[in-house]
């Protein structure tokens, strides 16, 4: 991937965060996606959610690089801004444009669902969510990131908000299954964000950025991060007992849980920066596989395959 404008957006990360909302909608409203006519009714909404979610996620990545110029000069000088491929002014402008696109998509979703599908109870959900995400993106990169745990928490809440938004946008009702999935994604991302501090210790100390790694060192950071990641396992088990999850969910989630355990053990055994860099990508792949598992449950659970506990 050589285009700096694509690299600065972190497309795989944007895709995952955007799909949290899409999968949240499918799990919360499976009946709306198993009838072709209903799927077509909501297709413009799904497209706008994808575009808006991508734009807001990408704005966070771009603004992160804009405010992290000095840190990246030490930790990752090949990134588009410190390498000179994109100027700071260009990056800031790009980030603002992406935020504007995300907010416009939020307005479009609310108006479309109101006028086309008569969705009155949830009018405003999309625009409010878009504005909150835009504020969080700007506040994180400018202020929260200086205080590691707060910044890590804010990013992970943003991931969970994708599932919450997907839960509310069509029917304004909370689904236990969707929120358990969101909680699992939250813990996976939270632990990943904490562990990433191990890779950036030198630049963070140079720029007075407080992280778990700068305060406690690599070993304790790995212990804390792996414990957080491990919490994804118990919350992913809850839907089996209280949310009518099917055998499809059980079998697919077992694979994800095995990967989570492997990641935790790997991090505890080897917490060198180069290893953590590999682990952060493995966690992203684990999250992608989890989204696939959740999607299978949305399309097959309760319709093709019976719930484990009816």
CATH superfamily of the largest domain: UbiA prenyltransferase
Tally of extended strands?
0
Query: In angstroms, what separates the terminal alpha carbons?
Result: 48 Å
Q: Which series of helices and strands comes N to C?
A: HHHHHHHHHHHHH
Structural class: mainly alpha
CATH class of the largest domain: Mainly Alpha
- The fraction of residues in strands falls at under 5%
How large is the radius of gyration? 20 Å
Categorize the overall geometry. Answer: globular
Q: How many domains comprise the coordinates?
A: 2
Number of helical stretches of at least 4 residues:
13
Q: Tell me the CATH topology of the largest domain.
A: Tetracycline Repressor, domain 2
CATH architecture verdict of the largest domain: Orthogonal Bundle
What does the average pLDDT come to? 87
Q: How can the largest sheet be summarized? A: none
């Amino acid at each position: 991937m050589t285009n700096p404008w694509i690299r600065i957006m972190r497309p795989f990360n944007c895709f995952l965060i955007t799909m949290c909302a899409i999968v949240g909608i499918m799990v919360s409203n499976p009946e709306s996606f198993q009838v072709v006519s209903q799927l077509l009714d909501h297709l413009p909404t799904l497209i706008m959610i994808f575009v808006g979610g991508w734009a807001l996620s990408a704005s966070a990545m771009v603004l992160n690089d804009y405010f992290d110029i000095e840190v990246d000069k030490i930790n990752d000088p090949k990134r588009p801004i410190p390498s000179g491929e994109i100027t700071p002014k260009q990056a800031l402008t790009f980030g603002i444009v992406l935020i504007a696109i995300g907010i416009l998509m939020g307005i479009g979703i609310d108006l479309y669902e109101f006028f086309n599908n008569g969705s009155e109870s949830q009018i405003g959900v999309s625009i409010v969510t878009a504005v909150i995400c835009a504020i969080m993106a700007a506040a994180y990169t400018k202020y929260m990131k200086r205080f590691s745990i707060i910044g890590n928490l804010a990013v992970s809440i943003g991931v969970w908000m994708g599932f919450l938004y997907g839960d509310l946008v069509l029917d304004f009702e909370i689904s236990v299954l969707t929120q358990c999935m969101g909680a699992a994604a939250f813990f996976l991302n939270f632990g990943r964000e904490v562990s990433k501090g191990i890779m950036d210790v030198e630049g963070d100390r140079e720029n007075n950025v407080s992280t778990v790694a700068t305060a406690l060192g690599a070993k304790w950071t790995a212990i804390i991060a792996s414990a957080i990641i491990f919490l994804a396992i118990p919350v992913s088990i809850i839907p089996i007992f209280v949310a009518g999850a099917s055998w499809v969910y059980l079998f697919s989630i077992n694979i994800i849980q095995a990967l989570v355990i492997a990641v935790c053990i790997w991090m505890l055994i080897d917490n060198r920066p180069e290893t953590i860099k590999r682990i952060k990508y493995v966690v992203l792949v684990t999250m992608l596989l989890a989204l696939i598992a959740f999607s299978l449950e949305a399309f097959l659970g309760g319709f093709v395959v019976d719930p484990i506990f009816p």
